[in-house]
């Protein structure tokens, strides 16, 4: 039987068995002298102590009366017979009392409860949501099975998606857009459970424009087709949702098929302009279309020259391309 009275757990079933390691004696007047004994006096969380209650007359003659056990604080305390189990760390007061209310030990025995074996790691992140480029701080707590913190551990934080969240020590930095799980490893002990925290990264304010080009090449062949779009980006280059720029193609040299698909129908440099509606942000991208090969003028060896018995021949020349600007080529 367990009854909670004014923050004190009253546990029945204490026997008048052998006295333990520690005791306290007080005169309870007509109620007799009530003693409380616990064995052992120090346990790990989740451990058990044996409680012995004795009641004597003022002449130290044992009295055959029923007793109960009170525990303060009550959190994590339970009793079965004379066995008291404690799962929360700290100093616990244990006192016997007469079941009939005739007296109580007012100098309780003290049980010291230390943390048990590491069972899990728990991560917290503050704040839980940031903008890209902002920071959050992670902390890790190691607990035993009873939820007691185990301090002094060697810990290492891990990020499930380093493209979304960067980590340096306990500092988390938003990089991409999305979520990442933060877990913690206790390096010196084995824990069966890891309780992660989730960090959400959203796009920051629009600060610039970027072009999305497919395929993205340095030069394009004549009649090549390409998809071109432009959008707003935050301070770390992430696309800001809903911020699509208005694209203006050059007046000649390209064919627009709708959407973002274009075909280059003339050689030269084609400049696309982009403007983000509702802002002053604008940008441009030039696409070079070159459908002809570069001009190569061999100056050495001279035309018609012959070489006999020479294992190597030095070749020199001049390369030019008015459109692409190519100035060098590789001779295989």
What are the main properties of this structure?
elongated; five-stranded antiparallel sheet; disordered N terminus; 31 strands; 332 residues; mainly beta
Structural commentary:
0% of the residues lie in helices and 55% in strands. It is mainly beta. The protein has strands spanning 2-5, 8-14, 22-27, 33-39, 42-44, 47-56, 67-72, 77-80, 83-86, 90-98, 109-114, 118-126, 129-131, 135-144, 155-159, 165-168, 171-174, 178-186, 193-195, 197-202, 208-214, 219-220, 225-233, 239-244, 246-248, 254-258, 261-264, 268-275, 282-289, 295-300, 316-320. The chain is built from no helices and 31 strands. Strands 1-2-7-10-11-5 form a six-stranded mixed beta sheet, with no helix packed on it.
Topology (elements, then pairings):
Blueprint: E1 2-5, E2 8-14, E3 22-27, E4 33-39, E5 42-44, E6 47-56, E7 67-72, E8 77-80, E9 83-86, E10 90-98, E11 109-114, E12 118-126, E13 129-131, E14 135-144, E15 155-159, E16 165-168, E17 171-174, E18 178-186, E19 193-195, E20 197-202, E21 208-214, E22 219-220, E23 225-233, E24 239-244, E25 246-248, E26 254-258, E27 261-264, E28 268-275, E29 282-289, E30 295-300, E31 316-320
Parallel strand pairs: 5-11, 12-19, 13-20, 22-29
Antiparallel strand pairs: 1-2, 2-7, 3-4, 4-6, 6-9, 7-10, 8-9, 10-11, 12-14, 14-17, 15-18, 16-17, 18-20, 21-23, 23-24, 23-27, 25-28, 26-27, 28-29, 30-31
């Amino acid at each position: 039987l367990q009854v909670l009275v004014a923050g004190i757990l009253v546990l029945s079933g204490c026997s008048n068995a052998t006295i333990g390691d520690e005791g306290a004696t007080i005169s309870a007047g007509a109620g007799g002298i009530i003693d409380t004994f616990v064995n052992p006096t120090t346990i790990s969380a989740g451990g058990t102590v044996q409680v012995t209650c004795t009641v004597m007359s003022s002449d130290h003659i044992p009295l055959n009366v029923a007793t109960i056990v009170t525990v303060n604080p009550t959190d994590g305390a339970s009793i079965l017979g004379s066995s008291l189990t404690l799962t929360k760390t700290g100093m616990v007061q244990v006192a016997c009392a007469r079941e009939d209310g005739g007296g109580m030990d007012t100098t309780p025995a003290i049980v010291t409860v230390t943390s048990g074996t590491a069972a899990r790691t728990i991560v917290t992140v503050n704040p839980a949501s940031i903008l890209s480029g902002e920071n959050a701080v992670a902390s890790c707590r190691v607990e035993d099975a009873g939820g007691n913190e185990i301090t002094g551990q060697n810990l290492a934080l891990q990020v499930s998606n380093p493209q979304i969240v960067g980590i340096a020590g306990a500092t988390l930095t938003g990089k991409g857009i999305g979520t990442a799980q933060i877990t913690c490893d206790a390096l010196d002990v084995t824990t069966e459970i890891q309780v992660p925290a989730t960090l959400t990264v959203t796009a920051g304010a629009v600060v610039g424009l970027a072009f999305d080009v497919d395929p993205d090449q340095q030069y394009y062949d004549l009649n090549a087709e390409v998809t071109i779009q432009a959008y707003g980006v935050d301070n770390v280059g992430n696309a800001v949702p809903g911020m699509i720029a208005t694209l203006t193609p050059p007046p000649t040299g390209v064919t627009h098929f709708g959407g973002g698909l274009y075909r280059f129908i003339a050689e030269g440099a084609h400049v696309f302009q982009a403007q983000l509606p509702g802002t002053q942000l604008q940008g441009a991208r030039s696409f070079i279309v070159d459908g002809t090969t570069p001009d190569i003028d061999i100056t050495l060896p001279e035309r018609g020259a012959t070489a006999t018995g020479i294992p190597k021949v030095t070749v020199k020349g001049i390369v030019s391309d008015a459109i692409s600007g190519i100035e060098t080529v590789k001779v295989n």
